[in-house]
Design brief:
It contains three helices and no strands. By secondary structure, it is mostly helical. It has one domain. The longest helix is centred in the middle third of the chain and has 35 residues. The chain is elongated. About 0% of the residues are buried. The model has no long low-confidence stretch (mean pLDDT about 90).
Length: about 80
Amino acid sequence: MVYLAKYVTVSAKIEAELRKKLAELGIKPSEIIRKSLEKEVEERMKQELYKKVEKASKIITKVGKDAWIRAIREGRKQR
């Protein structure tokens, strides 16, 4: 099965001088913008995950070691 990505157009305004330099250097702005946005999304997702892990960690530490051990043993018995 071949997956076809759906694309949308995103635009950004830059100074004419920067656009000229990009062209002179053969840099395609679309590639740079795409990679930059992908990197930013990945970073933000990591930050969100970290926040969730921190929150879960606080909850887990409140439960206590003995309660975790009991829960694991009960789970094993139910198998």
